[in-house]
Specification:
alpha+beta; 5 strands
Length: 140
Amino acid sequence: LRSQTAGLGMRETINYALNFVQSIPYDTLLQRTTANGAGFATPPGLLAMNKGDCDTKSVALAAILKNLFPRLRMMIVYVPGHAFVGFNMPPQKGDRTLQIGGSTFVLAEPAGPGIFAMGKIAPDSEKLLQQNSYSYREIL
């Protein structure tokens, strides 16, 4: 990804990586043949199986971007039954953000359910955020 995004800004690079992860087919990973039924695969496992669920895809995207931007603060945001990512960076007009600890995080949906650019989230995710039904973990 580094060579394919050379010369792009941070936001464009994040969108490129986001689109890559979104293109990996969604799977709940609950079958014995996928991740031993654990419901989670490591980033290399996601790439090897070419399938993953929302938390697997969120962790993979964060791992990719932590390698490209080691100082970028990131959060995994959890809503009931779903996970997505937030990036501590200046938002653009229309971006969906979360304020966490005085910092602004621009949100992104690595698993979909559709193809969303950075700053856009699924309607179900939006509804749960508006109900304050979320938690988060910083990626260190």
